[in-house]
Amino acid sequence: MATLLHIDSSVFPTQASASRAVTEAFRKHWQEQHPEGTVVYRDLAAEPVPHITADAHLAGFVPEAAHTPEQAAVFAERVKLIEELEQADAILIGAPMYNYTIPSTLKAWLDNVILMGRTAGENPSAKGTPVTVVASRGGSYAPGTPREGYEYVQNYLKAVLADALGLDVEFIVPELTMASKNPAMAELVPLYEASRDRAFEAAEARARKLAERLAA
């Protein structure tokens, strides 16, 4: 049966997090299609992975037989994360926008799993794996909006996930999530609600589509 790697990075619980709410919906529909499948779950807010260190970085460019004890210890942790990526049939990532970009915990996970000559480079080891990114944000950074130039979530993740790792990336973007909480955005509530509804519909459709693809 198929394996889903599910990663959340919001600092807020599901009831207060747009990204977690949508990834939870995706996972629910996924598990309905794969009741005997496996979900590998990482909550990067609750259990952050280590930020990359000099030993962890350099170990990726040195044969394992030549690793120092310090390099061997931290590289083993990187390999565990890399193997989760490689063994997944599909990947789900919650990536809320914090200060125009992704949470540092998600960046730390990416720094660990990007390994030249293995997951990145000429023949990425997880190439073609479908990844769904729920890129929530409090405002709107869509093309044509005043803050279009501040969009550093989708642009960055496309470069890393699609271009560097060779993954098959699709974004679901719940936007204007602060409209219901910020009185100054009250007139945008209908747009927020429409965006939220589209996100849940997209999560269900994407989960079912991937289920059909993997079952074929």
TrEMBL record:
Annotated ranges, domain Flavodoxin-like fold: 3-173
Cofactor note: Binds 1 FMN per subunit.
Its EC number(s): 1.6.5.-, 1.7.1.17
Pfam families: Flavodoxin_2
Keywords, alphabetical: Flavoprotein, FMN, NAD, Oxidoreductase
Catalytic activity: 2 a quinone + NADH + H(+) = 2 a 1,4-benzosemiquinone + NAD(+); N,N-dimethyl-1,4-phenylenediamine + anthranilate + 2 NAD(+) = 2-(4-dimethylaminophenyl)diazenylbenzoate + 2 NADH + 2 H(+)
Binding site for FMN: 10, 17-19, 136-139
Keyword NAD among record annotations: yes
SUPFAM superfamilies from the UniProt entry: Flavoproteins
Cofactor list: FMN
Classification via HAMAP family: Azoreductase_type1 (MF_01216)
PANTHER family per record: FMN-DEPENDENT NADH-AZOREDUCTASE 1, FMN-DEPENDENT NADH:QUINONE OXIDOREDUCTASE
Quaternary structure (record): Homodimer.
Family: Belongs to the azoreductase type 1 family.
Its job: Also exhibits azoreductase activity. Catalyzes the reductive cleavage of the azo bond in aromatic azo compounds to the corresponding amines. Quinone reductase that provides resistance to thiol-specific stress caused by electrophilic quinones.
Protein name per the record: FMN dependent NADH:quinone oxidoreductase
Gene source species: Streptomyces cinerochromogenes
Gene name, Swiss-Prot/TrEMBL: azoR
